[in-house]
Amino acid sequence: MMRFFVIGITDNPHPFFTPEVIKSIKSGKVFSGGKRHHEIVAPFLPDDSEWIDITVPLDAVFEQYRLAIANRQPSTIVVFASGDPLFFGFANTIKRRLPDAEIVLAPTFNSLQMLAHRLVLPYHDLRIISLTGRPWQELDRALIERTSKIGILTDREHTPAAIARRLLDYGYTHYQMHIGEHLGNPTLERVTTLSLEAATHNDFSHPNCLILVPLCCDGDTSPRPFGIPDHLFSHLDGREKMITKMPIRLLTLQALDLPNRHTLWDIGFCTGSVSIEARLLFPHLRIEAFEIRPECEALIQQNARRFGAPGINIHIGDFRSLCCDTIAAPDAIFIGGHGGHLKEIMAKALTFLAPDGIIVFNSVTSPVVEQATSRPSSRQLWNEACEELGLRQSPPLRIQLNDYNPIEILTCKR
Hints:
By secondary structure, this protein is of the alpha/beta class. It has helices at 19-27, 35-41, 58-72, 90-97, 111-119, 137-144, 160-169, 196-199, 246-255, 273-281, 295-307, 342-350, 367-372, 378-389, and strands at 3-9, 30-33, 50-53, 77-82, 102-106, 127-130, 150-153, 175-181, 190-195, 208-214, 263-267, 286-291, 312-316, 332-335, 358-364, 392-393, 397-399, 407-413. The chain folds into three domains: 3-108, Cobalt-precorrin-4 Transmethylase, domain 1; 112-214, 2-Layer Sandwich (Methyltransferase, Cobalt-precorrin-4 Transmethylase, Domain 2); 230-413, Vaccinia Virus protein VP39 (Rossmann fold), CATH 3.40.50. The longest helix has 15 residues, at 58-72.
Protein backbone atom coordinates (compact mmCIF):
# COMPACT_ATOMS: atom_id res chain seq x y z
CA MET A 1 0.00 0.00 0.00
CA MET A 2 1.30 3.45 -0.95
CA ARG A 3 1.34 6.13 1.73
CA PHE A 4 1.20 9.88 1.11
CA PHE A 5 1.74 12.78 3.48
CA VAL A 6 0.17 15.77 1.73
CA ILE A 7 1.19 19.18 3.06
CA GLY A 8 -0.74 22.32 2.17
CA ILE A 9 1.23 25.54 1.69
CA THR A 10 0.45 29.10 0.62
CA ASP A 11 2.42 31.41 -1.67
CA ASN A 12 4.58 32.55 1.28
CA PRO A 13 8.26 32.02 0.34
CA HIS A 14 9.06 31.39 4.03
CA PRO A 15 6.42 28.88 5.14
CA PHE A 16 5.80 27.91 8.74
CA PHE A 17 5.63 24.17 9.42
CA THR A 18 4.56 22.42 12.61
CA PRO A 19 7.05 20.11 14.37
CA GLU A 20 5.19 17.08 13.00
CA VAL A 21 5.54 18.36 9.44
CA ILE A 22 9.23 19.25 9.93
CA LYS A 23 9.88 15.73 11.25
CA SER A 24 8.20 14.17 8.20
CA ILE A 25 10.19 16.36 5.82
CA LYS A 26 13.54 15.59 7.51
CA SER A 27 12.89 11.85 7.38
CA GLY A 28 11.51 11.91 3.83
CA LYS A 29 13.24 10.49 0.76
CA VAL A 30 10.83 11.23 -2.08
CA PHE A 31 9.02 14.56 -2.43
CA SER A 32 6.60 15.89 -5.01
CA GLY A 33 4.64 19.00 -5.99
CA GLY A 34 4.43 21.73 -8.59
CA LYS A 35 7.45 23.71 -9.75
CA ARG A 36 6.32 26.72 -7.70
CA HIS A 37 6.02 24.51 -4.61
CA HIS A 38 9.55 23.22 -5.17
CA GLU A 39 10.93 26.76 -5.22
CA ILE A 40 9.29 27.48 -1.86
CA VAL A 41 10.21 24.30 0.03
CA ALA A 42 13.61 23.47 -1.51
CA PRO A 43 15.53 24.83 1.53
CA PHE A 44 13.72 22.35 3.80
CA LEU A 45 14.43 19.20 1.78
CA PRO A 46 17.21 16.71 2.68
CA ASP A 47 20.25 16.81 0.40
CA ASP A 48 19.80 13.27 -0.91
CA SER A 49 16.08 13.57 -1.58
CA GLU A 50 14.32 12.96 -4.89
CA TRP A 51 11.80 15.46 -6.28
CA ILE A 52 8.99 14.50 -8.69
CA ASP A 53 7.30 17.38 -10.51
CA ILE A 54 3.52 17.15 -10.73
CA THR A 55 2.88 17.86 -14.41
CA VAL A 56 0.57 16.44 -17.03
CA PRO A 57 0.18 13.71 -18.04
CA LEU A 58 -0.48 12.51 -14.51
CA ASP A 59 -0.07 8.87 -15.54
CA ALA A 60 3.66 9.55 -15.82
CA VAL A 61 3.72 11.16 -12.37
CA PHE A 62 2.11 8.16 -10.69
CA GLU A 63 4.44 5.82 -12.55
CA GLN A 64 7.36 7.82 -11.10
CA TYR A 65 5.84 7.35 -7.64
CA ARG A 66 5.68 3.60 -8.18
CA LEU A 67 9.28 3.43 -9.38
CA ALA A 68 10.52 5.64 -6.53
CA ILE A 69 8.98 3.37 -3.94
CA ALA A 70 10.35 0.29 -5.69
CA ASN A 71 13.88 1.72 -5.98
CA ARG A 72 14.30 3.79 -2.81
CA GLN A 73 11.72 2.01 -0.65
CA PRO A 74 10.52 5.06 1.28
CA SER A 75 7.68 4.51 3.71
CA THR A 76 5.95 7.69 2.53
CA ILE A 77 5.88 10.06 -0.44
CA VAL A 78 5.68 13.64 0.82
CA VAL A 79 3.58 15.87 -1.45
CA PHE A 80 3.29 19.66 -1.28
CA ALA A 81 0.01 21.17 -2.55
CA SER A 82 -1.68 24.55 -2.51
CA GLY A 83 -3.89 25.40 0.44
CA ASP A 84 -6.20 22.59 1.50
CA PRO A 85 -5.25 19.49 -0.57
CA LEU A 86 -8.89 18.35 -0.48
CA PHE A 87 -10.12 21.65 -1.91
CA PHE A 88 -9.88 20.95 -5.66
CA GLY A 89 -6.47 19.67 -4.66
CA PHE A 90 -4.04 16.86 -5.31
CA ALA A 91 -5.29 14.71 -2.44
CA ASN A 92 -8.49 14.24 -4.44
CA THR A 93 -6.42 13.04 -7.39
CA ILE A 94 -4.61 10.51 -5.20
CA LYS A 95 -7.92 9.23 -3.80
CA ARG A 96 -9.33 8.85 -7.30
CA ARG A 97 -6.31 7.10 -8.81
CA LEU A 98 -5.19 5.10 -5.77
CA PRO A 99 -8.31 4.47 -3.68
CA ASP A 100 -6.43 2.08 -1.38
CA ALA A 101 -3.59 4.50 -0.64
CA GLU A 102 -3.13 5.81 2.89
CA ILE A 103 -3.30 9.62 2.97
CA VAL A 104 -2.31 11.89 5.86
CA LEU A 105 -3.05 15.60 5.51
CA ALA A 106 -1.54 18.78 6.91
CA PRO A 107 -3.77 21.43 5.32
CA THR A 108 -3.64 25.19 5.46
CA PHE A 109 -6.17 27.80 4.34
CA ASN A 110 -7.12 27.67 0.69
CA SER A 111 -6.88 30.79 -1.45
CA LEU A 112 -10.57 31.68 -1.35
CA GLN A 113 -10.61 31.38 2.44
CA MET A 114 -7.61 33.73 2.63
CA LEU A 115 -9.28 36.22 0.29
CA ALA A 116 -12.44 36.15 2.42
CA HIS A 117 -10.29 36.69 5.51
CA ARG A 118 -8.59 39.73 3.95
CA LEU A 119 -12.02 41.16 3.08
CA VAL A 120 -13.54 40.20 6.47
CA LEU A 121 -16.25 38.61 4.33
CA PRO A 122 -18.34 35.73 5.75
CA TYR A 123 -17.95 32.80 3.37
CA HIS A 124 -20.27 30.11 4.78
CA ASP A 125 -22.67 30.90 1.91
CA LEU A 126 -19.98 31.18 -0.78
CA ARG A 127 -20.65 29.12 -3.90
CA ILE A 128 -17.30 27.86 -5.13
CA ILE A 129 -16.50 27.40 -8.82
CA SER A 130 -13.22 26.08 -10.20
CA LEU A 131 -12.31 27.27 -13.69
CA THR A 132 -8.81 25.85 -13.37
CA GLY A 133 -8.53 23.69 -16.47
CA ARG A 134 -12.33 23.49 -16.62
CA PRO A 135 -14.98 24.96 -18.97
CA TRP A 136 -17.38 27.80 -18.15
CA GLN A 137 -20.31 25.45 -17.40
CA GLU A 138 -20.50 25.76 -13.61
CA LEU A 139 -19.97 29.52 -13.57
CA ASP A 140 -22.69 29.92 -16.21
CA ARG A 141 -25.01 27.81 -14.09
CA ALA A 142 -24.30 29.87 -10.98
CA LEU A 143 -25.06 33.08 -12.88
CA ILE A 144 -28.32 31.77 -14.34
CA GLU A 145 -29.36 30.59 -10.89
CA ARG A 146 -28.67 34.13 -9.63
CA THR A 147 -26.19 33.07 -6.98
CA SER A 148 -25.44 36.04 -4.75
CA LYS A 149 -21.85 35.25 -3.72
CA ILE A 150 -19.46 33.29 -5.98
CA GLY A 151 -15.84 32.31 -5.30
CA ILE A 152 -13.84 31.45 -8.42
CA LEU A 153 -10.52 29.66 -8.86
CA THR A 154 -8.94 30.97 -12.06
CA ASP A 155 -6.28 29.91 -14.54
CA ARG A 156 -4.34 31.65 -17.30
CA GLU A 157 -7.29 31.41 -19.72
CA HIS A 158 -10.14 32.09 -17.30
CA THR A 159 -8.60 35.29 -15.95
CA PRO A 160 -10.44 37.93 -13.89
CA ALA A 161 -10.63 40.10 -17.03
CA ALA A 162 -12.10 37.25 -19.11
CA ILE A 163 -14.61 36.44 -16.36
CA ALA A 164 -15.67 40.10 -16.10
CA ARG A 165 -16.17 40.27 -19.89
CA ARG A 166 -18.36 37.17 -19.82
CA LEU A 167 -20.57 38.60 -17.09
CA LEU A 168 -20.95 41.89 -18.94
CA ASP A 169 -21.63 40.17 -22.28
CA TYR A 170 -24.59 38.27 -20.82
CA GLY A 171 -26.02 41.10 -18.73
CA TYR A 172 -24.87 40.05 -15.25
CA THR A 173 -23.79 43.57 -14.41
CA HIS A 174 -24.87 43.65 -10.76
CA TYR A 175 -21.66 42.09 -9.41
CA GLN A 176 -18.55 43.62 -7.91
CA MET A 177 -15.23 41.73 -8.15
CA HIS A 178 -12.67 41.17 -5.38
CA ILE A 179 -9.36 39.78 -6.71
CA GLY A 180 -6.60 38.26 -4.60
CA GLU A 181 -3.11 37.79 -6.07
CA HIS A 182 -0.29 35.73 -4.54
CA LEU A 183 -2.23 35.30 -1.32
CA GLY A 184 0.06 34.41 1.56
CA ASN A 185 3.10 36.03 0.00
CA PRO A 186 4.04 39.03 2.21
CA THR A 187 5.79 40.81 -0.67
CA LEU A 188 3.56 40.09 -3.68
CA GLU A 189 0.12 39.70 -2.10
CA ARG A 190 -2.45 42.17 -3.37
CA VAL A 191 -6.21 42.42 -2.91
CA THR A 192 -8.16 44.62 -5.32
CA THR A 193 -11.85 45.52 -5.50
CA LEU A 194 -13.13 46.64 -8.90
CA SER A 195 -16.25 47.05 -10.97
CA LEU A 196 -16.65 44.50 -13.75
CA GLU A 197 -15.95 47.16 -16.36
CA ALA A 198 -12.72 48.18 -14.64
CA ALA A 199 -11.65 44.53 -14.26
CA THR A 200 -11.79 44.03 -18.04
CA HIS A 201 -8.98 46.60 -18.44
CA ASN A 202 -6.63 45.16 -15.81
CA ASP A 203 -4.04 42.40 -15.83
CA PHE A 204 -3.57 40.37 -12.68
CA SER A 205 -0.53 38.28 -11.84
CA HIS A 206 -0.90 34.55 -11.42
CA PRO A 207 -1.85 32.79 -9.19
CA ASN A 208 -5.03 34.62 -8.32
CA CYS A 209 -8.61 33.96 -7.30
CA LEU A 210 -11.67 36.14 -6.99
CA ILE A 211 -15.00 36.56 -5.24
CA LEU A 212 -18.07 38.06 -6.90
CA VAL A 213 -20.57 39.83 -4.65
CA PRO A 214 -23.67 41.82 -5.65
CA LEU A 215 -23.44 45.59 -5.65
CA CYS A 216 -26.54 45.80 -3.48
CA CYS A 217 -27.84 43.47 -0.79
CA ASP A 218 -30.81 42.36 -2.91
CA GLY A 219 -28.66 41.16 -5.82
CA ASP A 220 -30.37 40.77 -9.20
CA THR A 221 -34.08 41.45 -8.77
CA SER A 222 -34.95 41.84 -12.47
CA PRO A 223 -37.94 39.68 -13.44
CA ARG A 224 -37.36 36.52 -15.45
CA PRO A 225 -40.54 35.22 -17.08
CA PHE A 226 -41.52 31.57 -17.10
CA GLY A 227 -41.67 31.40 -20.87
CA ILE A 228 -40.03 34.20 -22.87
CA PRO A 229 -42.52 36.18 -25.00
CA ASP A 230 -41.91 35.50 -28.70
CA HIS A 231 -41.71 39.15 -29.71
CA LEU A 232 -38.67 39.71 -27.48
CA PHE A 233 -36.50 37.46 -29.64
CA SER A 234 -34.65 38.71 -32.68
CA HIS A 235 -36.06 36.74 -35.60
CA LEU A 236 -34.59 35.38 -38.81
CA ASP A 237 -35.19 38.03 -41.48
CA GLY A 238 -37.76 39.57 -39.14
CA ARG A 239 -40.13 36.62 -39.60
CA GLU A 240 -41.78 35.97 -36.27
CA LYS A 241 -43.34 32.77 -37.58
CA MET A 242 -39.85 31.24 -37.78
CA ILE A 243 -39.84 30.43 -34.08
CA THR A 244 -41.25 27.74 -31.83
CA LYS A 245 -44.05 29.63 -30.10
CA MET A 246 -43.71 30.07 -26.38
CA PRO A 247 -46.57 27.76 -25.21
CA ILE A 248 -45.40 25.08 -27.67
CA ARG A 249 -41.81 25.66 -26.53
CA LEU A 250 -42.67 25.01 -22.88
CA LEU A 251 -44.66 21.87 -23.74
CA THR A 252 -41.73 20.68 -25.83
CA LEU A 253 -39.32 21.14 -22.92
CA GLN A 254 -41.72 19.19 -20.73
CA ALA A 255 -41.83 16.37 -23.29
CA LEU A 256 -38.01 16.25 -23.31
CA ASP A 257 -38.04 15.46 -19.55
CA LEU A 258 -35.20 17.94 -19.06
CA PRO A 259 -35.07 17.93 -15.23
CA ASN A 260 -33.78 14.36 -15.51
CA ARG A 261 -31.44 14.86 -18.51
CA HIS A 262 -27.82 15.90 -18.81
CA THR A 263 -27.18 16.92 -22.43
CA LEU A 264 -29.67 18.37 -24.94
CA TRP A 265 -29.08 18.49 -28.69
CA ASP A 266 -31.20 21.15 -30.41
CA ILE A 267 -31.05 20.33 -34.12
CA GLY A 268 -32.20 23.20 -36.35
CA PHE A 269 -32.15 25.94 -33.69
CA CYS A 270 -32.90 28.96 -35.99
CA THR A 271 -33.43 31.81 -33.46
CA GLY A 272 -32.27 29.64 -30.56
CA SER A 273 -35.52 29.96 -28.65
CA VAL A 274 -35.67 26.32 -27.49
CA SER A 275 -31.99 26.23 -26.48
CA ILE A 276 -32.25 29.54 -24.62
CA GLU A 277 -35.46 28.64 -22.79
CA ALA A 278 -33.95 25.28 -21.81
CA ARG A 279 -30.72 26.94 -20.64
CA LEU A 280 -32.57 29.34 -18.35
CA LEU A 281 -35.04 26.82 -16.92
CA PHE A 282 -32.59 23.94 -16.55
CA PRO A 283 -29.11 25.45 -16.07
CA HIS A 284 -27.60 22.08 -15.13
CA LEU A 285 -27.96 21.03 -18.78
CA ARG A 286 -25.21 20.98 -21.35
CA ILE A 287 -26.72 22.27 -24.59
CA GLU A 288 -25.39 21.61 -28.09
CA ALA A 289 -27.22 23.62 -30.77
CA PHE A 290 -27.03 22.76 -34.49
CA GLU A 291 -28.11 24.84 -37.51
CA ILE A 292 -27.40 24.65 -41.26
CA ARG A 293 -27.85 28.39 -41.93
CA PRO A 294 -24.70 30.41 -41.10
CA GLU A 295 -26.69 33.60 -40.48
CA CYS A 296 -28.36 31.95 -37.48
CA GLU A 297 -25.10 31.85 -35.51
CA ALA A 298 -25.15 35.61 -34.90
CA LEU A 299 -28.88 35.40 -34.23
CA ILE A 300 -28.65 32.85 -31.42
CA GLN A 301 -25.66 34.67 -29.92
CA GLN A 302 -27.62 37.93 -29.91
CA ASN A 303 -30.64 36.30 -28.29
CA ALA A 304 -28.53 34.39 -25.75
CA ARG A 305 -26.87 37.63 -24.63
CA ARG A 306 -30.19 39.44 -24.51
CA PHE A 307 -31.70 36.89 -22.11
CA GLY A 308 -28.57 36.07 -20.10
CA ALA A 309 -28.12 32.50 -21.34
CA PRO A 310 -24.38 31.76 -21.57
CA GLY A 311 -22.98 28.32 -22.31
CA ILE A 312 -24.88 27.20 -25.41
CA ASN A 313 -22.41 25.43 -27.73
CA ILE A 314 -23.11 26.31 -31.37
CA HIS A 315 -22.41 24.11 -34.40
CA ILE A 316 -23.01 25.47 -37.91
CA GLY A 317 -23.37 23.18 -40.93
CA ASP A 318 -25.46 20.35 -42.32
CA PHE A 319 -26.05 18.05 -39.36
CA ARG A 320 -25.89 15.00 -41.61
CA SER A 321 -22.25 15.69 -42.48
CA LEU A 322 -21.02 17.28 -39.24
CA CYS A 323 -18.49 15.30 -37.22
CA CYS A 324 -20.08 14.85 -33.79
CA ASP A 325 -17.56 12.44 -32.27
CA THR A 326 -16.07 15.06 -29.93
CA ILE A 327 -19.43 16.59 -28.92
CA ALA A 328 -21.02 15.54 -25.63
CA ALA A 329 -23.43 12.68 -26.33
CA PRO A 330 -27.10 13.56 -25.74
CA ASP A 331 -29.76 11.94 -23.64
CA ALA A 332 -32.37 14.36 -25.05
CA ILE A 333 -32.75 15.53 -28.67
CA PHE A 334 -35.13 18.10 -30.10
CA ILE A 335 -35.43 18.31 -33.87
CA GLY A 336 -36.68 21.78 -34.72
CA GLY A 337 -35.90 21.70 -38.45
CA HIS A 338 -35.10 18.99 -40.95
CA GLY A 339 -35.34 20.40 -44.49
CA GLY A 340 -37.01 17.21 -45.73
CA HIS A 341 -34.23 15.01 -44.31
CA LEU A 342 -35.90 13.94 -41.07
CA LYS A 343 -35.12 10.25 -41.54
CA GLU A 344 -31.39 10.83 -42.11
CA ILE A 345 -31.19 13.23 -39.17
CA MET A 346 -32.93 10.80 -36.82
CA ALA A 347 -30.75 7.89 -37.98
CA LYS A 348 -27.55 9.82 -37.30
CA ALA A 349 -28.78 11.28 -34.01
CA LEU A 350 -29.71 7.81 -32.81
CA THR A 351 -26.09 6.64 -33.11
CA PHE A 352 -25.15 9.16 -30.39
CA LEU A 353 -28.28 9.03 -28.20
CA ALA A 354 -27.89 7.51 -24.73
CA PRO A 355 -29.69 4.16 -24.21
CA ASP A 356 -32.41 5.82 -22.11
CA GLY A 357 -32.52 8.95 -24.29
CA ILE A 358 -35.53 10.63 -25.86
CA ILE A 359 -36.22 12.36 -29.20
CA VAL A 360 -38.90 15.04 -29.58
CA PHE A 361 -40.18 16.52 -32.84
CA ASN A 362 -42.96 19.03 -33.48
CA SER A 363 -44.98 18.16 -36.55
CA VAL A 364 -47.00 20.98 -38.12
CA THR A 365 -50.25 19.93 -39.77
CA SER A 366 -50.95 22.06 -42.88
CA PRO A 367 -53.74 20.51 -44.99
CA VAL A 368 -53.40 23.16 -47.71
CA VAL A 369 -49.69 22.49 -48.20
CA GLU A 370 -50.12 18.72 -48.03
CA GLN A 371 -52.79 18.81 -50.71
CA ALA A 372 -50.72 21.06 -52.99
CA THR A 373 -47.60 18.87 -52.96
CA SER A 374 -46.82 15.22 -53.41
CA ARG A 375 -44.07 15.26 -50.77
CA PRO A 376 -44.72 13.17 -47.65
CA SER A 377 -45.76 15.09 -44.57
CA SER A 378 -43.37 15.51 -41.65
CA ARG A 379 -45.64 13.24 -39.58
CA GLN A 380 -45.38 10.56 -42.23
CA LEU A 381 -41.57 10.88 -42.29
CA TRP A 382 -41.52 10.64 -38.51
CA ASN A 383 -43.66 7.50 -38.46
CA GLU A 384 -41.55 5.84 -41.13
CA ALA A 385 -38.31 6.76 -39.35
CA CYS A 386 -39.55 5.40 -36.02
CA GLU A 387 -40.60 2.12 -37.65
CA GLU A 388 -37.36 1.71 -39.64
CA LEU A 389 -35.16 2.56 -36.65
CA GLY A 390 -37.11 0.44 -34.19
CA LEU A 391 -38.14 3.37 -32.00
CA ARG A 392 -41.08 3.26 -29.63
CA GLN A 393 -43.47 6.22 -29.87
CA SER A 394 -45.38 7.78 -27.00
CA PRO A 395 -48.94 9.07 -27.52
CA PRO A 396 -48.74 12.41 -29.39
CA LEU A 397 -49.89 15.70 -27.94
CA ARG A 398 -51.96 17.72 -30.42
CA ILE A 399 -52.38 21.45 -29.86
CA GLN A 400 -53.50 24.46 -31.86
CA LEU A 401 -52.45 27.95 -30.86
CA ASN A 402 -54.72 30.81 -31.97
CA ASP A 403 -55.07 30.76 -35.76
CA TYR A 404 -51.82 28.85 -36.40
CA ASN A 405 -51.85 25.36 -37.90
CA PRO A 406 -52.23 22.49 -35.41
CA ILE A 407 -49.01 21.03 -34.02
CA GLU A 408 -48.35 17.53 -32.76
CA ILE A 409 -45.59 17.11 -30.18
CA LEU A 410 -44.12 13.70 -30.97
CA THR A 411 -41.77 11.73 -28.77
CA CYS A 412 -39.95 8.43 -29.15
CA LYS A 413 -37.41 6.25 -27.36
CA ARG A 414 -35.47 3.12 -28.19
